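In the design runs reported in the main text, the only information available to the sequence generator was the tokenized backbone. The following block is the verbatim input for one such run; it is reproduced so that readers can re-run the procedure and compare outputs position by position.
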């Protein structure tokens, strides 16, 4: 029905208006529009103010996962099938990067929900934290370390991923500079159901 602030939404559930927690503090203006169909997850803490989390939304015939915490979880699951040692939340330089794989692969994970005509873009709003992470990865690449940014596209069947220069040109510039200094830029889309998210296949990144 509405989204009065970044943290909550008003949803019609069983004929009543329910206030739910939105697990994504981004704008999501093209997703959370009045009348859209959303998917909720029942909270497990009986003492919390909202009984449900909003975790997914239908955009036309596309189901998009909106849980901002999900990309790191599904990447960890995907990585553990490929690397022996997967360590989350690794301190590097002045930042805390998302993962270190087998002791020397540094990875920063970014979730992507912004899509138009099967083209995904990151990100929908300005966030200087992302630029900081790109600078740290670039420094790692310049020191000869294996560093990567991994875009988890939280929907299926996108044709490409690109930085959203119209909204956040500084991130796009930092991403291109990092790539020019050896940082690998990867993107994968996902299989999405109302109660699951799974990394599916690699998609091209356009810089």
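Verbatim output:
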């Amino acid at each position: 029905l509405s989204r009065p602030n970044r943290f909550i939404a008003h949803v019609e559930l069983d004929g009543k208006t329910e206030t739910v927690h939105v697990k994504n503090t981004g704008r999501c203006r093209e997703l959370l529009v009045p009348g859209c169909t959303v998917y909720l997850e029942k909270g497990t803490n009986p003492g919390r103010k909202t009984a449900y989390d909003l975790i997914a939304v239908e955009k036309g015939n596309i189901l998009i996962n909106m849980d901002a915490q999900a990309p790191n979880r599904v990447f960890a699951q995907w990585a553990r099938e490929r690397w022996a040692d997967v360590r989350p939340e690794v301190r590097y330089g002045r930042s805390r990067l998302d993962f270190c794989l087998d002791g020397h692969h540094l990875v920063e994970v970014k979730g992507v929900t912004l899509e138009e005509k099967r083209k995904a873009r990151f990100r929908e709003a300005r966030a200087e934290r992302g630029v900081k992470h790109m600078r740290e990865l670039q420094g790692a690449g310049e020191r000869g370390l294996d560093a990567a940014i991994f875009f988890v596209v939280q929907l299926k069947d996108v044709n490409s991923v690109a930085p959203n220069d119209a909204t956040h040109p500084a991130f796009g510039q930092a991403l291109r500079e990092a790539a020019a200094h050896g940082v690998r830029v990867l993107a994968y889309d996902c299989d999405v159901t109302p109660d699951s998210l799974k990394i599916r296949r690699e998609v091209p990144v356009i810089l």
